[in-house]
Design brief:
about 180 residues, mainly alpha, Four Helix Bundle (Hemerythrin (Met), subunit A), 6 helices
Length: about 180
């Protein structure tokens, strides 16, 4: 168990706290917890690279913690009526589609290399930025401004483009001789 793995596990354990904070309208705490999670993600990655503490466990739990955090925020904000439900469904469906594609390819003895697309990195960055913006606006009492509408559209479009890119890559891989 390395320091980066401990930090990642703590980030994973913060997800239920974040859900409770949002459902109880403790937006300042939710925003600060989300910022701490983001900082911890950067710190554990830096430590793992700098002091050669990369592990197989870390390779699995770091993206799991990141996805758990993002999916939880979008689903919780949707269930509390802050975000439209369709956006949470879109964000979650993209991730489920990616994981399902990887599993199906492996089950068919056609493992697909796991390499994120550039648009996928942009999508994740957009989803994180929008979640941070939204939690920050809610924490300061400005939760109902036009930026939310624009952010919703931007995240939806990025998510759709990313899902389409992964689907095209998967279909090409599965149809290759």
């Amino acid at each position: 168990m390395t320091i980066p793995n401990i930090i990642t596990i703590l980030r994973l354990l913060s997800v239920p706290l974040l859900i409770v904070a949002i459902t109880q309208a403790s937006y300042t705490f939710a925003f600060l917890l989300f910022l701490a999670a983001g900082i911890s993600d950067a710190v554990d990655g830096f430590i793992a690279r700098r002091w050669n503490m990369r592990t197989e466990l870390g390779a699995y739990i770091d993206p799991l913690a990141d996805k758990a955090l993002l999916v939880s925020i979008y689903v919780t904000l949707s269930l509390t009526g802050i975000l439209p439900g369709w956006l949470a469904v879109l964000v979650v469906s993209r991730d489920v589609m990616i994981v399902a594609g990887i599993l199906v390819a492996r089950l068919m003895d056609r493992p697909i290399p796991i390499r994120p697309l550039f648009v996928s990195k942009m999508t994740t960055a957009g989803q994180i930025a929008f979640a941070a913006l939204l939690l920050g606006l809610l924490a300061t009492g400005y939760g109902h401004i036009r930026a939310i509408d624009w952010g919703t559209v931007a995240v939806a479009l990025l998510t759709l483009v990313s899902a389409t890119g992964y689907l095209v890559r998967w279909l090409r891989h599965m149809n290759a001789a």
